[in-house]
Amino acid sequence: MTTPTACPTDRPPNLAPASGAAHPRLALCGDILYFLRDPGWSEDATGAVRFEPDGWLLIEHGRVHAVRPADDPPDASWARHDWRGHLVLPGFIDPHVHAPQLDVIASFGAALLDWLERYTFPAEARYADAEQSRLGAERFLHALLAHGTTAALVFATVHKTSSDALFKAGRRLGMRLITGKVLMDRNCPADLRDDVAQAERDCVELIERWHGVDRLAYAVTPRFAATSSAEQLAMAGGLLQRYAQRAGGLYMQTHVAENRDEVRWIAELFPDSRSYLDVYAGHGLLTRRSMLAHGIWLDDTDRDRMAQAGSSIAFSPSSNLFLGSGLLDWARAERAGVGVAPASDVGGGTSLCQLRTLADGYKVLALQGQRLTAWQGLYAVTRGAARTLELEHEIGHFAPGTAADVVVWRWAEGAVQQRRQDMARSLHERLFAWMTLADERNVAAVYVGGCKIVPAVQDSAGWNREAAGHLGPAVARPG
Ligand code: GUN
Ligand code: ZN
Questions:
Q1: Would 76 be classed as within a structural domain?
Q2: Which of 18, 186, 287, 356 has the fewest CB atoms in 10 Å of its CB?
Q3: Total number of domains in the chain
Q4: Which atom of ligand 1 is nearest to the CA of 226?
């Protein structure tokens, strides 16, 4: 359970000074939308979605107090932020993204293994430096917020300092952030290589310092089976076991079955394993808090095993298209009972905006005869993602007691989006066009734990916190 977090006063130095006064009771007025449950794949989401045009989202001490219809406004004890004519959604959740890879997003001409060597490893090597890590963490988290994402499961680099910097910056921003030091003891450049004993000491130090502090959690992060020895994977599994009772347990994040050359390489490296997934299963790495990126080339046995373990797939269509990796069959994963959460996978993916992830996801699924509704897409990047991360009690929707992580979006930015909105005849049509056409330029405001964060006036890359409450103790834990 989240512990109380105050609006931070020690803002990163590159942020403009705060504007606005702290207020423990805040009412946002706008077109509020969130999911009560999984809407499924039908265009009819009756009963699964709540939409309150010009409704009221009441936030008390940083947590959702209530959602009310337009004709039931709060009394004068509530400060008001008027977002009428805007779409008010729970902040998006990104379950798989690489902080240091903002430096290599949109790099030309390579498939996965080549791309790692040519672009990614050299970029990640720079994060050995503590100051680079600090600046990189702030740049990354501000960018994430600016793209409408308020919670994430993030790859740092192999360096302890890179995850330390992310935890510090995330805590200052009051964000729900899960990250961890990358484990990598072979098949990578020497300056990115750790060893089992040192990696374990680093992990333990980071876990003891950060796991369960405010809204932070630790993710054991073997990059992928190619860059960790069997001994290192066993150490990683040991950590999951050792800390299973601490703050709900650690998370585990890695990559699996992304690219066919990669799958062949893993079979050579682990000849005794039945499959790529089996390497992780055999080292105790599949839990309810395991998020495996891609999983395009898994088979039915693998999917059943993931379902049994309660592990999830991070679906990264932008990355899968950009690196030419393949098309994930979401319906098949769902039929097997495996949770699927859309993810940006920047820098393999080419946008931090989860709306771009969904638009690419729609196209990847359309090639396989599947149709991603706006309902399922928006559910999957909010409440659905929260569910795969065992965070449904805290984020992804607006039930009373959840953290007030809120993004206010413009329905239309520019004439083309506006025309399409004007022509839409149903809420689903409106939302689907919005999901497909909108991006970070549509973001009007971001609230994290009830604190409003606004773009600095002169620098669109800089962000400015506006205190509008603080995240007080949990008042209710919705089922
Ligand atoms: N497999 C191992 N490392 C990576 C990475 O950084 N990005 C992607 N997309 N796949 C990986
Ligand atoms: Zn990745």
A1: no
A2: 186
A3: 1
A4: 2
